[in-house]
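[Meeting: bench + compute handoff]

Bench side (C.D.) handed over the final construct sequence. Compute side (W.E.) agreed to return the predicted structure before the next meeting so the bench team could plan truncations. Sequence as handed over:
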Amino acid sequence: MSVASILKVKGGEVVTASAEATVGEIAGLLGRHRIGAVLITGPGDAIEGIVSERDIVAGVASFGADVLGRSAGEIMTRDVHVCDSDASIYEIMNVMTEQRIRHLPVVVEGKLSGIISIGDVVKQRIAEVEFEADAMKRYISS
C-alpha cells in the first residue's frame, strides 16, 4: 500500500496557517479540527514549518503561558520531513520512527497534496493485516 491509497480514502485536506499566526490561534485550529499538527506555509503554499502539540508543550516549557501570544514562527519545527504519494506504508513508518515524528506532509511535483499522520498509518496497517488474515482463513478452509 502507498501513501496515495491512504489519501484516496482520507482526502487531501491540510490545515495550514502562516508563521505570523499566534500559538493560541494554532491551538484553536488543533482543537477545532481534532488534529495534532498544523502546517505553516508561506507564499505559494511553500512549507515553512510545522507546529505540533509537542511544539506547543515545548513552547510552554520555554515561555510559560505567554507562549499563546507568540507567533507560530517562534516555536515551529523548521526541518519538515515530507514524502511523495508513491511512498509505501513501510517507508513512511520508518521515517516516522527514525525521526520521532507523527505527521508527514505529502508533496507531489512540488505541491502540497495532503498530510499523513501516524494514526492514518496504523489504521491502514490494521486493515491490511485483517485482509491478510481473512485471505488465509479462506485459503485454509478451501
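W.E. noted at the follow-up: The chain is about 50% helix and 20% strand. C.D. will use this when planning the next construct.
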